[in-house]
Amino acid sequence: MTEAREPAGPHARRLPGTPCWVSLMVHGLDATEEFYGELFGWEFRPGPQQLGPYVRALLDGREVAGVGRLPTDRRLPVAWTPYLASDDADRTADTVRLCGGTVAVGPLDAAEAGRMAIAADPSGAVFGIWEGVAHPGTALTGVPGTPVWNELLTFETESVTKFYKSVFPYEEEPVVSAGDDCLTLRLDGRPVAGLHGVGHGLPPDRGPHWRTYFEVADLDATLRRVAELGGRVLAPAYDGPHGRVATVADPEGAEFSVIQGPR
Predict the structure, then answer these.
(1) Residue 242 — left, alpha, or beta (φ > 0 → left; ψ -120 to 50 → alpha)?
(2) Measured CA distances, 12 to 7, 79, 92, 134 (Å)
(3) Where is each VOC domain found (predicted)?
């Protein structure tokens, strides 16, 4: 998964379908800033307020993620959500609807930064649509504390792959793994996201969802720090083809994975 890193300058254009931003919606914004600030070394500054209080997380002065307070009038999960790049958020949202997905929020302008929507695929997995203007997306990748990969955990990949390939110009590459229902989505031959069908292995209270992976320098130290800061380790560390990985949750329950690349 780490081969999908794309160091991006602040004005780099993303191909439609490229995961270009990750955003977390929570109840307690101040406590969440403290957790991720301590865990990843992020600093925060105000961002667009269309959905309520919202901040952008910065690492070394460059934007890497967003954190907002959940609107009281919308039923949205406490979860990390990847945003997929679009040249036209309105057209993409229309295509989502035509292909069996739903659009819960927007499209709407996020000040001068761009235009966005929050959608779900036919299985219910939530993702964002981002038409960048002044803010194309994540400005720093490939270093500890930055998002490095996104993976969809769903019931099965065949039908949901058709949806994503109808909305964005993805190519698919099956992952050779005995008994596993996995594939990789590519753009211009470059891997950008993974799909993993787990059948009834999905938590009944969660359903299909996207998971974001963050790069870390020392996985064991990160897991200890997660626990010290009030989070939880959900799945112990294991060695994967792209490094050592574990799944954790922050104090509000938002799940994410952390990966230490091979040395």
Answers:
(1) alpha
(2) 9, 27, 20, 11
(3) 18-132, 146-261
Rounded Cα gap, residues 50 and 32, in angstroms:
19
pTM given for the model: 0.92
What stretch of H or E contains 36?
Answer: helix 29-40
Q: How far apart are CA 78 and CA 151, in angstroms?
A: 17
Rounded to 5 degrees, what are φ and ψ at 16? -55, 130
Q: What percent of the chain has pLDDT over 90?
A: 77
Q: 110-163: per-residue pLDDT in tens? A: 989 999 999 999 999 999 999 999 889 999 999 999 999 999 999 999 999 999
Kindly state the tokens that stand for 221: 């130290």
Pairing mode, strands 190-197 and 147-154: parallel
Residue 98: Cβ-neighbour burial (10 angstroms; 0-12, 13-18, 19+) = exposed
pLDDT tens for each residue of 23-70: 999 999 999 999 999 999 999 999 988 778 999 999 999 999 999 998
Other C-beta atoms closer than 10 Å to the C-beta of 234 total: 14
Q: How far is CA 122 from CA 25, 40, 82, 161, 185, in A?
A: 22, 33, 17, 11, 17
Region label for 39, one of left (φ > 0), alpha (ψ between -120 and 50) or beta (otherwise): alpha
